[in-house]
């Protein structure tokens, strides 16, 4: 069927900020879809609040709105743009929910906007548990015994009927927020209460648990002519019970016979047909490991994380084709873009095994509950491709960048702990299984503990068993080759042989034990394909043909994690495009299936490989590029630079020496002294004793952190010696190889600058000012462009320092600098000689294509020849704020207090004509609902009590009620500010947790006590707020920002003749 | 133990032995299905062929009692990247290795099967030999080049005598050219009273069984090698409603004056899109054929093309313009593969029903 001609313009809704459950996969899907729709000649209007995405680039859509994805703002865009149609299925759950809300509000009907792809009724049928169950019953498809409940009483009734264990799934939530498995009464009360709160419709599904069944997913597509196909099926390594986003997943299924495969395929196709979806859909099924019995678990009537994985696993671009189907094209008239010769209406055949392992944030959140269940906790994932399962999973393990290169934990673990960690799945279960096998625990026992299919356990056992063979045959060619075929890393071989990784690598090269590259072609080599999409494996035939063109390798940034998000993929993609523009062949190496950079149509060649030295070197050995660009792949790529240079590889742009000069504390200090740029007093300590004496010398409070850090990992401000000792003993390993930096903590304004230098000129697209004072990680601060509180003199000083640093450190390419302005003095806190989190934000505001320019500079162009001159680019009009977004609701037991260690998962942008308006939008887009009246609960530390007084008065003047515990309340009362006193936790009567639970406060301001021990009251208050969905601010600066917004929204209610107390009010 | 696979183009693959130690020669073909190896290796249409699977892990769910498409596999050899030594599935009874040992079929694993597939794609289907590592490759190659592949595969795999598979419904005579059990199963599922007859049955013999319908099965090799059947079809079409699958489809074409030809490397897999020219709909089908009906040759016959392969446009379905007879190149019985085309069996029964009520061509009024 030809495409629709009754529509000309289409609104696409993005998925907003990166949060747990909704990561870069929607940037990939959205970007593909927008390009596909433009290709078909439609005018594409895009709304997404996340500036760190490729999809919000001006070239991707005809009109790009970086605005909050809320009814208010999307309606405004619809009324302004008058699109003919809306495509809601590409923006994840956010996009779908927004579409439903828009339809319910009547704005779509009012403006005559048609919904493409999936009818709203189908969305509701798939999402609303009751309607879904009815549909499944009509289709004769089995669903586990379940009931929709709206209260705890109803939950009890259900359990009485079916018994424990039961699974709780709240309706309409992301990544299963608020869900879980209940084994007993206590679990039931906790999880059901939380689940009802997190569901926007206060509805949960209670389901008889089928934990232990095989979890199988099908990615299916259907067109308007009712043609339906399966793109890929996937089998979860972890049986039912763990959210699929937190499961290790393999594609295709491994343990299903054809009858089982086809049975579940039929069900999946039956469902997509019944829902009449025009586009992609994900069906999750549970299959009894001992019979043909199965259940349908859930259906996602949209592109999803799984569809991104399926696209990368097969090469079949689901989102692109889903977008074209949505405008009427059918599968049989579209070409398969991979082969270019066959049609999209076919089912990809894989001739390799794909493994996905999630990346969890527990390295940053040590206190978090690491147990996995129905609520997703991973921030990202890696994918690896191999010709055997062993190769595939071992490649995935070393892609994780978790410091592990093999199936083990490198520590001695007691048997009882092994059993515990395998029975109750956590993020490290895979590694505990490795250790269990190594300590002789039988496969059957592990199966009994974990219910993981024996197939997988046998495979893991083969790896462990082969270790012994390897160990006995040092540098044996045949054994070495077989080990590499099984996916053993050089690091693993080196440790088994007590050799260095480098000598293993060199030995292999001599012996010719090197991988070949095979193509991902959707058709298992049946048809000739020209897709430049490769993976490495140890076999005979190499298919990656090296061209005669000069090439450049760009290293990607690996899995999305806190501190290294989608913004690095953004920069990577732009670098690749710039390389292509400059006439070179652009080769990318990356392992993250969610991203745009791993879309094979972006680069000239995509190698889907781990970002470890051996895997990168293999590609370089084959491709012999001019050099490697490491500036855009975050710390992942930077960390490889040293080893690459050791292997004789040219790093393009800033040299290794200069990279090191910015990152190595002592060299950096020396450079700053030479350049005469001040920095806070500080020293490097290599022992605890040294740390104590340094801290004493420079004076508390001090900022402590390990050198070479990612997103401020393990960074803390300590106020006294006891805290310092606690930190040294618990948070870091300190020794001469792992020094710890100790800096004087300066209170002041934090300023961030990104710049591009070619060695001669230094272009500064913009200066950003942070709302939160120094001490809060820059990634967790609200950043404002242009700065609102800097004098011209300070700005000039910053521009001058930036240029001096860029030139002094011999930066060629990008650099990011953080300054603190304290008592009108500018100090440098840190310099990152690479692309930063703020590059997309600034690029979009200033129209300076930073990653592109930097790449061209790296390739040898001068900024002058590219039309840029030294200095600060003239400030744009308007105010732009970048607001961080956190995923605390999904991570139990994590303290949400902002500090030097980064905790946010994503960001949004708010832009408008004034700071208040921009903040309003930014905060709203980040999920904070700002009400013009309500109650604010104050519990602050003694040191903050005077400061909070001013804020309290302003809240009072806006009409907010104040609630506080006795300490804070007495300070307020002394200043004649009315306040309601509540009891502290644990005291008789209604305590402040009750206030939070009952929803009596709309905002919580808490700076109470530091320390990470959960038993502290402050921690409990903060967690209680998160779990009840109430914004909890731990920085008075953020509170002040919100207050400004509230003040700008409201008129004051001030009695006559009382002006002294109302003087701070902003009238608007 | 090492073993080698030698191709007639001179390529030598060295791998690990599994299955029996026998040495076999045959045409090397690849199948792209990711599941269904048990059905594939027992599909009689592969008679005499060495089959490689493009999916690298084979045998993961073992060999079970139920999923055979014939009692004895007719393949000459099996080539895989990895043959699972620890199969895992509730129905698994034995490993691939155990099974092949019992059936005296050699297997070879540890092969870069993607390379092998690419060779077949470039070269076309080619002859190969699986033999011990000790064999002199040059000699084997010479023998291989001189080897003439058999032409009597249908005779080898067809039933020797007729037998019934009783039911209470329509009587269908199923001509066994190397029938997959799936076809019989589909008919039995529809309560048909099936009589399976050997490939060289005559029209007269069939008619004497008073059938309501005739089913032409799949089978191995070149349709032109089965002259008897062509004659039988010519004699019987129009007298009894007929449905043909795969080789049956090709024989039907030949019987009606169309021509068939050998394909470069055939269609073997579970993901072949077929377009129904009337409805415009696509079915994903299971296929296994090395020969095809020449599209151009259909024009001068009483046949019309009803289905085509979406990817290469080859003929996938035919219907007789006058008689109640239709055939497809693919496998509506699936096993292995998608069951999208399963409805064709229902159409066959509807055709029988229609023919009966219209009274045009029932057995009762046909003079034998």
UniProtKB/TrEMBL annotation, chain A:
<dbReference type="InterPro" id="IPR036914">
    <property type="entry name" value="MGS-like_dom_sf"/>
</dbReference>
<keyword id="KW-0677">Repeat</keyword>
<dbReference type="InterPro" id="IPR011607">
    <property type="entry name" value="MGS-like_dom"/>
</dbReference>
<feature type="binding site">
    <location>
        <position position="210"/>
    </location>
    <ligand>
        <name>ATP 1</name>
    </ligand>
</feature>
<feature type="binding site">
    <location>
        <position position="284"/>
    </location>
    <ligand>
        <name>ATP 1</name>
    </ligand>
</feature>
<dbReference type="InterPro" id="IPR005479">
    <property type="entry name" value="CPAse_ATP-bd"/>
</dbReference>
<feature type="binding site">
    <location>
        <position position="705"/>
    </location>
    <ligand>
        <name>ATP 2</name>
    </ligand>
</feature>
<feature type="binding site">
    <location>
        <position position="300"/>
    </location>
    <ligand>
        <name>Mg(2+) 2</name>
    </ligand>
</feature>
<dbReference type="GO" id="GO:0046872">
    <property type="term" value="F:metal ion binding"/>
</dbReference>
<feature type="binding site">
    <location>
        <position position="208"/>
    </location>
    <ligand>
        <name>ATP 1</name>
    </ligand>
</feature>
<feature type="binding site">
    <location>
        <position position="830"/>
    </location>
    <ligand>
        <name>Mg(2+) 4</name>
    </ligand>
</feature>
<dbReference type="Pfam" id="PF02786">
    <property type="entry name" value="CPSase_L_D2"/>
</dbReference>
<feature type="binding site">
    <location>
        <position position="818"/>
    </location>
    <ligand>
        <name>ATP 2</name>
    </ligand>
</feature>
<feature type="binding site">
    <location>
        <position position="830"/>
    </location>
    <ligand>
        <name>ATP 2</name>
    </ligand>
</feature>
<feature type="binding site">
    <location>
        <position position="744"/>
    </location>
    <ligand>
        <name>ATP 2</name>
    </ligand>
</feature>
<dbReference type="Pfam" id="PF25596">
    <property type="entry name" value="CPSase_L_D1"/>
</dbReference>
<feature type="binding site">
    <location>
        <position position="775"/>
    </location>
    <ligand>
        <name>ATP 2</name>
    </ligand>
</feature>
<feature type="binding site">
    <location>
        <position position="750"/>
    </location>
    <ligand>
        <name>ATP 2</name>
    </ligand>
</feature>
<feature type="region of interest" description="Allosteric domain">
    <location>
        <begin position="928"/>
        <end position="1068"/>
    </location>
</feature>
<dbReference type="GO" id="GO:0005524">
    <property type="term" value="F:ATP binding"/>
</dbReference>
<feature type="binding site">
    <location>
        <position position="818"/>
    </location>
    <ligand>
        <name>Mg(2+) 3</name>
    </ligand>
</feature>
<dbReference type="GO" id="GO:0006541">
    <property type="term" value="P:glutamine metabolic process"/>
</dbReference>
UniProtKB/TrEMBL annotation, chain B:
<comment type="similarity">
    <text>Belongs to the CarA family.</text>
</comment>
<feature type="binding site">
    <location>
        <position position="45"/>
    </location>
    <ligand>
        <name>L-glutamine</name>
    </ligand>
</feature>
<keyword id="KW-0028">Amino-acid biosynthesis</keyword>
<feature type="binding site">
    <location>
        <position position="250"/>
    </location>
    <ligand>
        <name>L-glutamine</name>
    </ligand>
</feature>
<feature type="active site">
    <location>
        <position position="331"/>
    </location>
</feature>
<comment type="subunit">
    <text>Composed of two chains; the small (or glutamine) chain promotes the hydrolysis of glutamine to ammonia, which is used by the large (or ammonia) chain to synthesize carbamoyl phosphate. Tetramer of heterodimers (alpha,beta)4.</text>
</comment>
<feature type="binding site">
    <location>
        <position position="290"/>
    </location>
    <ligand>
        <name>L-glutamine</name>
    </ligand>
</feature>
<dbReference type="InterPro" id="IPR036480">
    <property type="entry name" value="CarbP_synth_ssu_N_sf"/>
</dbReference>
<feature type="binding site">
    <location>
        <position position="247"/>
    </location>
    <ligand>
        <name>L-glutamine</name>
    </ligand>
</feature>
<feature type="binding site">
    <location>
        <position position="291"/>
    </location>
    <ligand>
        <name>L-glutamine</name>
    </ligand>
</feature>
<dbReference type="GO" id="GO:0004359">
    <property type="term" value="F:glutaminase activity"/>
</dbReference>
<dbReference type="GO" id="GO:0006207">
    <property type="term" value="P:'de novo' pyrimidine nucleobase biosynthetic process"/>
</dbReference>
<keyword id="KW-0436">Ligase</keyword>
<dbReference type="GO" id="GO:0005524">
    <property type="term" value="F:ATP binding"/>
</dbReference>
<dbReference type="InterPro" id="IPR002474">
    <property type="entry name" value="CarbamoylP_synth_ssu_N"/>
</dbReference>
<dbReference type="InterPro" id="IPR050472">
    <property type="entry name" value="Anth_synth/Amidotransfase"/>
</dbReference>
<feature type="active site">
    <location>
        <position position="333"/>
    </location>
</feature>
<keyword id="KW-0067">ATP-binding</keyword>
<dbReference type="InterPro" id="IPR006274">
    <property type="entry name" value="CarbamoylP_synth_ssu"/>
</dbReference>
<dbReference type="GO" id="GO:0044205">
    <property type="term" value="P:'de novo' UMP biosynthetic process"/>
</dbReference>
<protein>
    <recommendedName>
        <fullName>Carbamoyl phosphate synthase small chain</fullName>
        <ecNumber>6.3.5.5</ecNumber>
    </recommendedName>
</protein>
<feature type="domain" description="Carbamoyl-phosphate synthase small subunit N-terminal">
    <location>
        <begin position="1"/>
        <end position="131"/>
    </location>
</feature>
């Amino acid at each position: 069927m030809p495409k629709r001609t009754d529509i000309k313009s289409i609104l696409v809704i993005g998925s907003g900020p990166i949060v747990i459950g909704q990561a870069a996969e929607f940037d990939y899907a959205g970007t593909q879809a927008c390009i596909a729709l433009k290709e078909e000649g439609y005018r594409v209007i895009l709304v997404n609040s996340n500036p760190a995405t490729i999809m919000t680039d001006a070239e991707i859509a005809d009109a790009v709105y970086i605005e909050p994805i809320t009814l208010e703002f999307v309606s405004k865009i619809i009324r302004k743009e008058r699109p003919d149609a809306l495509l809601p299925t590409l923006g994840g759950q956010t996009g779908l929910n927004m579409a439903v809300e828009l339809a319910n509000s009547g704005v779509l009907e009012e403006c005559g906007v048609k919904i493409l792809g999936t009818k709203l009724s189908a969305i509701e049928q798939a999402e609303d548990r009751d309607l879904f169950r009815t549909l499944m019953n009509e289709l004769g498809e089995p669903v586990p015994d379940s009931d929709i409940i709206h209260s705890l009483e109803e939950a009890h009734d259900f359990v009485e009927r079916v018994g424990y264990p039961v699974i709780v799934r709240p309706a309409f939530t992301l990544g299963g927020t608020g869900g879980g498995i209940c084994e007993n009464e206590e679990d039931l009360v906790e999880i059901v209460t939380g689940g009802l709160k997190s569901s926007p419709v206060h509805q949960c599904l209670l389901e008889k648990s089928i934990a232990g069944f095989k979890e199988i997913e099908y990615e299916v597509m259907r067109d308007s002519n009712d043609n339906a196909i399966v793109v890929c099926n996937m089998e979860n390594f972890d049986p039912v019970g763990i959210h699929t986003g937190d499961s290790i997943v393999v594609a295709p299924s491994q343990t299903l016979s054809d009858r089982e495969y086809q049975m579940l395929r039929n069900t999946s196709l039956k469902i997509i047909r019944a829902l009449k979806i025009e586009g992609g859909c994900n069906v999750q099924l549970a299959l009894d490991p001992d019979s043909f019995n199965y259940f349908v678990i859930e259906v996602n009537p949209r592109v999803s994380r799984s569809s991104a994985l399926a696209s990368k696993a097969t090469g079949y671009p689901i989102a692109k084709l889903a977008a074209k189907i949505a405008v009427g094209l059918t599968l049989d008239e579209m070409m398969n873009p991979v082969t270019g010769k066959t049609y999209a209406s076919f089912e990809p055949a894989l001739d390799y095994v794909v493994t996905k392992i999630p990346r969890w944030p527990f390295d940053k959140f040590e206190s978090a509950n690491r147990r996995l269940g129905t609520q997703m906790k991973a921030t990202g994932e890696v994918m690896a491709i191999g010709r055997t399962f062993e190769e595939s999973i071992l490649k995935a393990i070393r892609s994780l960048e978790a410091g592990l290169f093999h199936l083990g934990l490198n520590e001695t673990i007691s048997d009882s702990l092994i059993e515990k960690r395998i029975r109750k799945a956590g993020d490290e279960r895979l590694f505990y299984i490795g250790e269990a096998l190594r300590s002789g625990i039988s496969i059957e026992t592990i199966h009994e503990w974990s219910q993981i299919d024996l197939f997988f356990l046998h495979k893991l056992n083969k790896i462990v068993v082969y270790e012994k063979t390897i160990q006995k045959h040092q540098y044996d060619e045949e054994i070495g080759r077989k080990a590499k075929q099984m996916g053993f890393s050089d690091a693993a071989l080196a440790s088994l042989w007590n050799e260095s990784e480098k000598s293993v690598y060199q030995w292999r090269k001599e012996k010719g034990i090197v991988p070949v590259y095979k193509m991902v072609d959707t058709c298992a080599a049946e048809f000739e394909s020209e897709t430049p999409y490769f993976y490495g494996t140890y076999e005979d035939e190499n298919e990656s043909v090296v061209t005669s063109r000069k090439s450049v390798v760009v290293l990607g940034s690996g899995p999305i994690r806190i501190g290294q998000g989608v913004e690095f993929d953004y920069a990577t993609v732009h670098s690749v495009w710039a390389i292509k523009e400059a006439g070179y062949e652009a080769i990318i190496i990356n392992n993250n299936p969610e991203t745009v950079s791993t879309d094979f149509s972006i680069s000239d060649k995509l190698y889907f490989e781990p970002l470890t030295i051996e895997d990168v070197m293999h590609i370089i050995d084959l491709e012999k590029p001019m050099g490697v660009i490491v500036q855009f792949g975050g710390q992942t790529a930077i960390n490889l630079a040293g080893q690459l240079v050791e292997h004789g590889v040219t790093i393009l742009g800033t040299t290794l020496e200069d990279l090191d000069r910015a990152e190595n504390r002592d060299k950096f200090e020396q450079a700053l002294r030479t350049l005469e740029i001040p920095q806070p007093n500080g020293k490097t300590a290599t022992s605890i004793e040294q740390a104590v004496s340094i801290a004493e010398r420079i004076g508390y409070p001090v900022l402590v952190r390990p050198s070479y850090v990612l997103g401020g990992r393990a960074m803390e401000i300590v106020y006294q010696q006891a805290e310092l000792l606690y930190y040294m003993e618990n948070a870091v390993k300190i020794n001469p190889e792992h020094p710890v930096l100790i800096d004087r903590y300066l209170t002041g304004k934090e300023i961030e600058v990104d710049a591009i230098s070619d060695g001669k000129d230094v272009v500064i697209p913009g200066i950003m000012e942070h709302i939160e004072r120094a001490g809060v990680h820059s990634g967790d601060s609200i950043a404002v462009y242009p700065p609102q509180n800097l004098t011209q003199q300070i700005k000039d000083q910053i521009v001058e320092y930036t240029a001096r640093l860029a030139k002094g450190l011999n930066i060629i390419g990008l650099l990011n600098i953080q300054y603190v302005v304290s008592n009108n003095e500018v100090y440098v806190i840190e310099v990152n000689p690479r692309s930063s989190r703020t590059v997309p934000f600034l690029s979009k505001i200033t129209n300076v294509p930073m990653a592109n320019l930097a790449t061209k500079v790296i390739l040898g162009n001068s900024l002058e020849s590219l039309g840029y001159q030294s200095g600060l680019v003239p400030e744009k009009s308007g105010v732009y704020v970048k607001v961080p977004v956190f995923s605390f609701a999904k991570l139990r037991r994590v303290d949400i207090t902002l500090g030097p260690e980064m905790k946010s998962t994503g960001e949004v942008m708010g832009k408008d004509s004034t700071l208040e308006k921009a903040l309003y939008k930014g905060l709203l887009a980040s999920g904070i609902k700002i009400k013009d009246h309500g109650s604010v609960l104050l519990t602050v530390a003694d040191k903050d009590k005077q400061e909070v007084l001013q804020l309290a008065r302003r809240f009072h003047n806006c009409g907010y009620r104040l609630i506080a515990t006795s300490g804070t309340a007495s300070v307020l009362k002394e200043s004649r500010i009315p306040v309601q006193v509540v009891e502290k936790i644990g005291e008789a009567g209604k305590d402040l947790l009750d206030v939070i639970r009952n929803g009596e406060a709309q905002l919580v301001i808490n700076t109470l006590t530091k320390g990470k021990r959960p038993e502290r009251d402050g921690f409990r208050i903060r967690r209680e707020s998160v779990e009840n969905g109430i914004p909890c601010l731990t920085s008075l600066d953020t509170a002040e920002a919100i207050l400004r917004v509230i003040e700008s929204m409201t008129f004051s209610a001030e009695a006559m003749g009382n002006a002294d107390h109302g003087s701070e009010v902003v009238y608007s | 133990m090492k073993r080698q696979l030698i191709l007639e183009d001179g390529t030598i693959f060295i791998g690990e032995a599994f299955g029996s130690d026998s040495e076999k020669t045959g045409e090397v073909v690849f199948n792209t299905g990711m599941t269904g190896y048990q059905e594939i290796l027992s599909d009689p249409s592969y008679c005499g062929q060495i089959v490689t699977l493009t999916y690298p892990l084979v045998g993961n769910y073992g060999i079970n009692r139920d999923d055979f498409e014939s009692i004895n596999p007719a393949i000459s050899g099996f080539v895989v990247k990895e043959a699972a030594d620890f199969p895992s599935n509730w129905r698994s009874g034995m490993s691939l290795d155990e099974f092949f040992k019992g059936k005296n079929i050699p297997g070879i694993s540890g092969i870069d099967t993607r390379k092998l597939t690419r060779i077949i794609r470039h070269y076309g289907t080619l002859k190969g030999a699986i033999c011990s590592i000790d064999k002199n490759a040059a000699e084997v190659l010479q023998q291989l080049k001189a080897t003439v592949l058999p032409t009597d595969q249908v005779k080898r795999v067809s039933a020797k005598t007729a037998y019934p598979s009783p039911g209470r419904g329509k009587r269908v005579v199923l001509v066994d050219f190397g029938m997959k059990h799936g076809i019989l199963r589909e008919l039995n599922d529809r309560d048909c009273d099936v009589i399976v007859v050997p490939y060289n049955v005559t029209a007269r013999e069939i008619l004497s069984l008073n059938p309501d319908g005739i089913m032409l099965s799949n089978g191995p090799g070149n349709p032109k090698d089965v002259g008897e059947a062509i004659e039988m079809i010519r004699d019987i079409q129009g007298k009894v409603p007929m449905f043909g699958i795969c080789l049956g489809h090709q024989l039907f074409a030949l019987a009606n004056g169309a021509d068939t030809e050998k394909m470069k490397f055939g269609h073997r897999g579970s993901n072949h899109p077929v377009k129904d020219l009337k409805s415009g709909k696509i079915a994903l089908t299971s296929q296994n054929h090395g020969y095809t009906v020449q599209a151009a040759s259909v024009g001068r016959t009483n046949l019309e093309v009803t289905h085509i392969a979406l990817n290469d446009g080859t003929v996938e379905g035919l219907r007789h313009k006058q008689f109640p007879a239709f055939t497809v190149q693919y496998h509506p019985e699936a096993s292995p593969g998608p069951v999208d085309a399963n409805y064709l069996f229902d159409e066959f029964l509807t055709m029988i029903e229609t023919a009966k009520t219209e009274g045009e061509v029932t057995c009762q009024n046909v003079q034998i």
